[in-house]
Structure formats: C-alpha cells, structure tokens
Amino acid sequence: MKHIINFSGGRSSGYLLNYIDRKNDNIFIFCNTSKETPETYEFINKCDIYFKLNLIILEYKPKGFIITDINKCKKNGEIFEELIKYKKMQPNPVMRFCTTDMKINVTRKYLRSLGIKQYINYLGIRADEPQRYSKIIARNNKNIYNDMPLYYNNTTKQIVQEYWKKMPFDLKHKSELGNCDLCFLKGKNKIINILRNQPNKADWWITQETNNKHTFKKDISYKTMLELSKQPTFNFEEENEIICNCNLND
User: Fold this and answer.
1) pTM score > 0.85 for this model?
2) CB pairs under 8 A, 24+ apart, for 92-101?
3) Domains of the chain from N-terminus onward
4) Chain segment 109-127, per-residue pLDDT in tens
C-alpha cells in the first residue's frame, strides 16, 4: 500500500518528515492554495532539499489539478480567487470548502490519476492536539488510513520547536500566522494583531470581500479589522478560534 505524506509547510508537518523512510512507495505532497506566507514557501523548498523529498506540488483547477514546482507555483492568492469565482461564493466558517477543494479533492484526484485508491495518509498532528486527532481518526475507512505518528509518540509543540532550533533552517515566522496568512478561521484579535505588524496582508481579503459583496466572517469585514488594528490597545473580548484543518487531507 502506498504511503502519502501530506506536507503543509508548517513546523509540525516538517518534523513529521523525520518519521518517514525514503522508500519508493512514499509520495510527498504539498497542495498550494497560493495564500501561504512567503516564509512558508521558503521553508517548503528548504525541507524538500534537506530531506530529499522529491516533493510533488499540486494546485487546484476547476474539475482538476496541475502539477507545478516551488519556483512556478502561484503565490499571490490566484488559486484561492479562482476557486471563489468558480463557486460564485466565498468560503466561511460554516462552509469551509477551501480546504476540501484546494487540498483534499486535489490530492485524491492526483492519486487516482496514478491509479492509487488505497493508501496510508500521514499527517503531522501532535499529541497536544487531541481534538484534531479525534476528528481525523474517525474518517478512517477501508481505502484510506490516517496515520499520525507525532500523536502516538507523544510529540508536543515544545518538542517540535526545540527540534527546529537545532536545525540549520527554520520557518521564519511566528506560529500565529499559520500557513494561510489571514485565514478567516483565526480569531479576530489574532488577525488584528497580525495586521498591526503587516497591514498589507489585508489587501487580498478586502478585495475579495469588495468584489463579492460578502464577508468571510459573519460579523466583521477585513477592512474593519484593518482599521481596528490601527488602535494600539484595541482588543475584542476573548473568543474561541475554529480549528483549521488546512493541512489535512483525509
């Protein structure tokens, strides 16, 4: 059975690469949304070279996918925008089709094009992420088995961080940025705090909301969050974030 390793471009996902043998039946995949941070693309490239992954980089196309590489892949929101135009709507916390269409379905279509329908799916879920683990393990079926070695080996965020401190390279941004720079599943305060340091990151999100006349979040626009970020001490009352599964392909 083939082993599929879904590399999200994050530190935990990169740490997972330690557990995987470089065998002929292993396929390393990164699904590009075009909204990853510049630092994420740099980290992906360094991991590919250092771990000798022969990484397959895939991108969503309506009803299909394309295979690309780190130098040619889209990095300015083009893929996400194309998905929105095709769907004629934006994703939101209730309808999170961005992950399904740009990652899960793209991976499945690629594997089916190779004649692969049964495989073990490796994911970088840590031991301190039990909620994510429970969601994913429930999806196992006769064709796809989701394996999470970091969870089973009691690997925590602290262990992952210490590992990368000792490596010759690291992901050069804080974990709060995640991979999708201003994902609408992030809490409002987190987005506002990011915009205090990097206000230009709001541009793409504001453009989509303006063009489509809808907000990604139900109760606030990115334009409003950008304005609020200009107030140094402003914060909403504490809010719960929605767990993003953007690095998961079940």
Assistant:
1) yes
2) 92/184, 92/216, 92/217, 92/218, 93/184, 93/185, 93/217, 93/218, 93/242, 96/185, 98/33, 98/246, 99/244, 99/245, 99/246, 99/248, 101/60
3) 2-175 (3.40.50.620), 176-228 (no CATH)
4) 999 999 999 999 999 999 9
